[in-house]
Design goal:
alpha+beta, Alpha-Beta Plaits, 2 domains, three-stranded antiparallel beta sheet, 10 helices
């Protein structure tokens, strides 16, 4: 591991020097790539240097232990330096864990109502708002791609993109079945209903990630529709793209421009195809996103939102927080950080 760290530090120093090279500065694409890679390696190198400094401090303190005048001070310094060395070494092991190649990417989020009918559709709208507010807090850009609205303001399904550095790294754990327990407004006897919503978070695929043959696509145009006749587009600007080899169908009808709708639909299609290919490579359960989100049955869930108790429970890590209002207003960091910590701990366990 020390040899690997030495190579990382050497590579980092070389790239730092290259970033000062006038030829590299003139080539904006190369410069940005180097700057991005340097930024990625920086935490490793900084932590490594803290570790080496702590080792040197231990040696210096150890050399003073035989001196009665400095013994007490040296023991304190030795204990402090040992703790810093241990902490930085633990951090280095985490920093050297294999990275998910998709972590830096933007995402496509798909939310669909599961069990619960209209109540599930209404909770789709709640989760859409929650992720939108979280994106806003992170200074990411959220854009609607397609929505199938209901009469009461919910969504049977809704698809949107969130663009921003590291969006996938923080949102990938949201994939799965989300269960809501609350009293619907239409419930006269005050009974709590349980409904489910499925969430799929797909890393946004780039052209270089997956090649789509135009001959494999069937592209149809149609008029956009809205709940109760709202926002109906009088022209055929909505787009439906069918990927014939896999049967994957994508629709986009948010924009009034057919060209923009086509671009967005292709973005979703590439992301879905990339996801399916990655699942195949990882020998995941067949059925593309079904392996990620389950069937939407009430018994399957990764998280429960209990309105009467003001509680949100993530069942994967046994975390329960009594701040449902804040969470549904986009305050997701405590949950996300806990999930990332648990995932890191599991990777460390497997690595050992």
């Amino acid at each position: 591991m020390l040899e690997k760290l030495r190579q990382v530090e050497e590579k980092y120093d070389q790239m730092q020097a290259q970033l000062c090279d006038p030829e590299v500065i003139a080539d904006m694409g190369r410069y940005r790539g180097l700057a991005r890679e340097t930024k990625r390696l920086e935490p490793v190198v900084e932590t490594l240097r803290v570790y080496h400094a702590a080792l040197r401090a231990q040696q210096e303190a150890g050399a003073l232990l035989d001196d009665p005048e400095f013994r007490e001070l040296a023991e304190e310094e030795l204990a402090r330096a040992k703790q810093v060395a241990e902490d930085s070494w633990s951090q280095l092991k985490i920093l050297l864990l294999p990275r998910d190649p998709n972590d830096d990417k933007s995402v496509i989020v798909e939310i669909r109502g599961g069990a619960g009918g209209e109540e599930a559709a209404l909770f789709c709208a709640v989760l859409f708002r929650m992720y939108g507010m979280y994106a806003e807090a992170k200074h990411w850009k959220a854009e609607l791609i397609n929505a199938n609205e209901t009469e009461l303001g919910g969504f049977k399904e809704i698809c949107f993109s969130i663009e921003g550095d590291g969006a996938y790294s923080r949102l990938k754990f949201e994939s799965g079945v989300h269960r809501v327990q609350r009293v619907p407004e239409t419930e006269s006897q005050g009974r709590i209903h349980t409904s489910t919503v499925t969430v799929a978070v797909l890393p946004e695929a780039e052209d270089v990630d997956i090649e789509v043959n135009p001959a494999d696509l069937q592209i149809d145009t149609f008029r956009a529709s809205g709940a109760g006749g709202q926002h109906i587009n009088k022209t055929e600007s909505a787009i439906r793209i069918t990927h014939l080899p896999t049967g994957t169908v994508v629709e986009c009808q948010d924009e009034r421009s057919q060209h923009k709708n086509r671009d967005r639909a292709m973005k979703v299609l590439r992301s879905r195809l990339l996801q399916a290919e990655q699942e195949k490579q990882q020998a995941a359960i067949a059925g593309e996103r079904r392996a990620q989100v389950g069937t939407g049955d009430r018994s399957e869930r990764i998280r429960t939102y209990n309105y009467p108790q003001g509680r949100v429970s993530d069942h994967r890590i046994g975390l329960t927080l009594y701040k449902i209002e804040a969470i549904l207003n986009g305050d997701l960091d405590e949950i996300v950080d806990a999930l990332i910590t648990a995932d890191t701990a599991e990777k460390l366990r497997m690595d050992n």
